[in-house]
Amino acid sequence: MLFNSLEFGLFLPIVFILYWFVTNNNLKIQNCFLLGASYFFYGWWDWRFLSLIILSSFVDYFIGVFLISENQEKRRKLLLMLSIFVNLGLLGFFKYYNFFIDSFTDSFTFFGSTINSNRLSIILPVGISFYTFQTLSYTIDVYKKNLAATKDIISFFAFVSFFPQLVAGPIERATNLLPQFFNKRKFDYAKSVDGLRQILWGFFKKVVIADNCAVYVNNIFENYTTYPSSLLLVGAVFFAFQIYCDFSGYSDIAIGTARLFGFNLMQNFSFPYFSRDIAEFWRRWHISLSTWFRDYVYIPLGGSRVSSIIKIRNVFIVFIISGFWHGANLTFIAWGLLHALYFIPLMLTGDNRNNTGNIAEGRYLPSIREFFQILITFSITVIAWIFFRADNITHAVDYIVRLFTNTFYSGSVLSFNGEAFLLGKDFIIMIFIILLILVEWIQRDRKHGLSFNSERLVSKISRRILYFIIGISIFVFGNFEKTEFIYFAF
Amino acid sequence: MKKFIVQIISYFLFLIFFILIGAKFTSNHVKKRNFKNFETESNLLILKENKKYDFLFMGISHARNFSRHKNHLRLDTVLDMSFINIAQGGGLCGVNEQYFYLKYFYQNRNQTNQVVYILSPPMLFHEGLTTASKTFDFEPFEFDFFFSYLFFNTRSKTQRLYSYVNSKYTLEWINHQPTSFTKNQTFLTNLDSAKVTDGLNSTYKQGLDQLHFDSNSIIIDQTIQLINTNNSSCILIIPPALFGKWNGHNETLEFAEKMKKKYGVKVFDYSESVLDPKYYYDHHHLNSDGVKFFSSKYLLPIL
User: Fold this and answer.
1) Does the interface ipTM go beyond 0.90?
2) Which of residues 66-105 of A touch B (CB under 8 A)?
3) Residue A172 DSSP SS3
């Protein structure tokens, strides 16, 4: 079920009412209900793939239980390996099988011989990259004794399949989310209202900005050879906002929805395009994934307490895996590699933790230095996003070359879809992007774009007008054609 | 909790109210331009109440073509009869929405002696027409139309209703003006077989889909019942095409003959009636001279 679908519009209020009015007296029943609702939510897409979630949940639940009673380190390690094998095995088969087969046959072709490839027509199960990482984190934490394994099977299954974050994150840690299933939830008015605001803001980002940008981005990336560099620049910048608004919008809806049910999910994005360097960008972008890689890959590899050479190796490993996690294509690996190259100089000079505080704290505007830092960071991420969006490496490289070498402006081709550029809907999208930047700048020390507190000089009436304007904008300018969320494919 | 739920409901009601009022406002603005049947593809812009017509056209582009480019006035002259055209071209709708338009026509206490249903074979086989979401984008927002459709049994209803209201906020709608295109004088010189083959292949991408044909046949059957209960008579016409018979022609004709037996409707197969390329602006749409020729030679004797 997509968040921006009528089905979800009906599903959410029904589940909300049953959750608080019918099942609230008994925690076990309430958790059972959440589990059923989550499976229904997922099964709406394709019920057959529920079996994978159930399998993954079963394996990690029982491994967790065995880990409690097992004291022999060798056996404990074996159990951990089994969990890693099953989860990464599922992920590897469904997401990467054809990629490896193709790479294998391509390498033979490169050396002048040909072999028959056994490609399979595999459907990528929605959200598999997210829930496998979530269950893996549970087993690793139990193995490391950071978390006590649970025997409450319903709570555990509900934790793995919790519908708000099931298909596109945030990738929750068992240490944060699982205990919330053990305690009785109470309806909190302020929390729920804030959750609704976050949902509203998420929808705005997703359907008004991301989905509309996608129309232009697809056109520009498809016909990039015919456009001047000014339009290629627009395509790349629009994609940066598309991917941000698509994914962070989805996370906002997920976090806001969870709050309606009394759950707190971790913040997944913290206004990343205001980052002053690439290290700060990675502390603000897809936080649940980057901290996952930090805790379960980077630190076990030795982290930063090793020699410079090993540190560099570790950074490359983490960024390349991170790129590969996003999709089975060399373009994603190139994207990760590029980020590693951006990051390493900062790490080697010890500047990677220079910008940990809020930007322009106590000021309305950034300093000139900060402004240029933000601009440079944004520009290099835009270059990297070209790899992320391109069909293959050649496409990306050619796009970048043309971006810097084509005529900057050519009136005769500065139009698409039959209308001159900046005179159609694209102009409205630009206005919305500016609005997004303004709102997020004002709210940069808060959890999301519409998070208000009473101390703020924003009166109740002006807030309501703002919600109303956003609601109208979603209806009037939202793109409600059936488009998949970009991150569903990961 | 109570306060929370009341606030959410109020927010949505307030939002829906303003959105619909806004749509009504822009619609009234456009309606002031007093459109005629041949000046717009919209039906609601020209549909009145308590009107009586000699006949009504329904179908897809082949039927709409009798009004486009001021052909409507040409038919008026040739036939000397009053008529309304509620057909929808441009891939906007299929048989179910045509049924809905006709129902709405009758609901507004309008009458017609005859209904001329132009039965183009692709209409019965093509899935795209049953799911097209922009069907009502050029219709003014009317509360009764909106709510009637809300309770109408059809596919892609939500997308259509969303698109219906949403389109009222576009510049394309607000600037909608009566078309000034007076005559379609484009004509063909010969039949281009390669073009016809390509065209037929793209029209019937899924082949002759029996499932769609069956469900659309049921709706046409219901349409004929609706026509009969409103004391109109029905004429089914398979329209002319330069290449003669469409794929699925035999199935369509067979179905029409079945309707003839069941309800006593009149059936005319005119698929090969006009084979001169000078009467076509493409391989299956008549130009203005073609419309005049066809109506005087084939429509006049049967109406």
Assistant:
1) no
2) none
3) coil
